[in-house]
Amino acid sequence: MDWGMKNRLSRLIKPDGHCFFMPVDHGYFQGPTSGLEKPNETIKDIIKYCDGLFVTRGVLRSAINANLEAPIILRVSGGTSMVGEDLANEGLTTSIEEIIRLNASAVGLSVFIGSKYENQTLMNLSKLVNECEGYGIPVMAVTAVGRELDKRDARYLGLACRIAAELGARIVKTYWCEKDFDKVVRSCPVPVVIAGGPKCSTEKEVFEFVYDGMQNGAIGINLGRNVWQSLYPEAMAVALQAIIHKKADVSEAQKIFNATKSKK
Length: 264
Description:
The structure is a single chain. It contains 12 helices and 10 strands. It has 264 residues and is of the alpha/beta class. It has one domain (3-262): Aldolase class I (TIM Barrel, Alpha-Beta Barrel). It has an 8-stranded parallel barrel, surrounded by 6 helices. Strands 4-5 form a two-stranded antiparallel sheet. The protein is globular.
């Protein structure tokens, strides 16, 4: 691995080997999203607890301060919407020149294994890896399931993660599953980060799946809605950071959340 690739990954993955990424890219297919009306306001009090910001070029250029210290993971796939026929029908949206110009530390795109557009999205990944490796830019593959949340079992996720790694992704973002998540991680030769998915009913649910995922081999999280749609986003960020970087368990995270919440 060359120095540039190592340097970019070291900005995203901390010396303890763990990471907390904050995605605010939801508008690329959802349009206006509750809690993301003003992205810079959304992240203002929570980005200091995160190790990277996952964002589209449009929001980065128009709504994120250029003095942001957190490294950028640039969302570079899209072309579909919630009202369209199929969320899996994605293409690459951003050139390598733009990725470099925006000083991204990494890029991310979705792959839809098992969908009608499986080959298309996997070739998107392959093309992106071919371009980015030449410039030392890591690619994060997102094992998306579109509207089909029932696909989130270990057999499917393990298949999707392994294929993404085989095609050259340096990091894979995938969903947590209650059973055999350790098998998903063990069968993937590159680091795995946990996606958040739909907002949970309680903060304890979030702490439980994040803690379990970390105990079973994930290196971190890429959580958005379960943080910035919370009534207490800063408290959520502080508690999750404690699980990721301070080895807090669910009970400790809940205490940290309650203590931080009470200060507001």
